[in-house]
Amino acid sequence: MADSLSSGIGEEQEKEKEDTEKGGKASKTEKNEERDGVTETLGFHDKNAGSKSKERNLSDLSLVRFITTELTRGYFLEHNEAKYTERRERVYTCLRIPKELEKLMTFGFFLCLDAFLYVFTLLPLRVILALLRLITLPCCGLSGSRLLQPAQVCDVLKGFIMVLCYSMMSYVDYSMMYHLIRGQSVIKLYIIYNMLEVADRLFSSFGQDILDALYWTATEPKEKKRAHIGVIPHFLMAVLYVFLHAILIMVQATTLNVAFNSHNKSLLTIMMSNNFVEIKGSVFKKFEKNNLFQMSNSDIKERFTNYILLLIVCLRNMEQFSWNPDHLWVLFPDVIMVIASEVTVDVVKHAFITKFNDISADVYGEYRASLAFDLVSSRQKNAYTDYSDSVSRRMGFIPLPLALLLIRVVTSSVKIQGSLSFMCVLLFYLGMITLKVLNSIVLLGTSCAFVKAANMEEKLFDPPPSVVSSRANSRAHRTKHDSTSPQKEPSADKSKVPPTADSSPPANMDERSAPTLPMSDPDTFLTTPDEGDEDKIINANTGLEGDRLEHRTPKKDLLEIDRFTICGNRID
């Protein structure tokens, strides 16, 4: 019994010892956790934080240690590789912009030069051939055939506009205009020059529409001869536009001439500083590719126009100094300053626009391909417009007023007397024709290379589906009209078409003019083909206005932009 009691007491004592040991360990762990918690709040969490905190000295928290840490700490840029790569690409893009932009500007300059030389060289010859055809064709007894082709009608209208406007320009005194502008103050001339630039853009945006309305009114098929009277008001409107635009450019050239001849050159400096205001108005705006393309075309047109204005200023100044070649070197620094400021503003503007909008420099290659496509497509059999008109629609450059002003200045500055002078004029004209032909050949070859590089070559050889379908629709409507005209009007239930669409003459005229709309729309030659082209063509063939609207609204391509714009904002 005693043994059993002693064993039981021993077991109870061992259990009490184990309980006390477990309690001591728990208390120690709680104390360690509390210490760890304190060190975590201070930001020095470590497994041996307690032992390290005891060994830490006050010298570790000194100013020397802080400075040493600031001098020796490091970081790794590869932890944010995407960000720094993007920044580097932006720098590379800004460095590539001058080269790519000048390539586009050079190509566009020669496009404008080709359209400008066309007015002096080939247009007079085409007008003479059209008039000879108009005179000789009735004499040959071919009364059933058409007298003039649509292109010849447009050429004759352009020739008549140039002749009438030149006769009106002969009554404008350039010298009186020069002295009138020179008598104004510097600030007033600066305001006038800014107003003239805005007015020139507005005239260019609306002028091509006036000329296109005249060409279409003169060439559209008409049932009655009385309908030809509508050409007269359109012709008078076109003559008035070309005359007013030529006067506006003359005032602009005269203001620039006054700035060149000022003694302190303050006006010229103010006018050149005006170009840098353009950076403020365009750089900090949001631009897309299409908007940048429109602004690039506007810059090409503006640069070519400035070159012609500088040529006019030099001609007028050389005439005043009896064509002394020494005076040309006096004008040379000012001319270089104007050109350099224009180029600098364009480069800075495009560089920062592409930087702020994350646009690659390769987009200017696409712009060149689009301009080249216009040139190559105008040489096809299914072309719907002349090349000079295509440049006018794309860039807003209308060569008729500028060519009229240059002819007026040259004829007033250069006196032609004697047979030798006429021979010089003839040789100069032949030289211009040679330059025009060589420029056209080089441009055509370069454009074909650009089109081939952009993989747009196949679209040139395929006939546009909208043109073929529109011709078929026009023939179908004509035969349907001829067959149903002696009969009664069909009911709306059987044809499921409103009776006014077939019976009323205005509806028939709309239907006959509707097939020509796809011909003036270069949507069939897109750089990026749309997915629903077949459906869109079918909807366009139905002849419904709603379908045509659905067919045109979703398309936003570079080749679709045919309207001149101001600072990249499209005018619809």
TrEMBL record:
Family: Belongs to the TAPT1 family.
Annotated compartments: Membrane
Residues covered by region (Disordered): 1-53, 462-542
A biological-process GO annotation: developmental pigmentation
GO terms under cellular component: ciliary basal body; endoplasmic reticulum membrane
Name the UniProt record assigns to this protein: Transmembrane anterior posterior transformation 1b
UniProt cross-references to InterPro entries, sorted A to Z: Tatp1 (IPR008010)
Pfam families per the UniProt record, alphabetical: DUF747
Membrane topology, from the record: Multi-pass membrane protein
Record field: transmembrane: 104-121, 160-181, 235-260, 397-414, 426-451
Biased composition (Basic and acidic residues): 12-53
Top-level lineage group: Eukaryota
Main location: membrane
Record's keyword terms, sorted: Chondrogenesis, Membrane, Osteogenesis, Transmembrane, Transmembrane helix
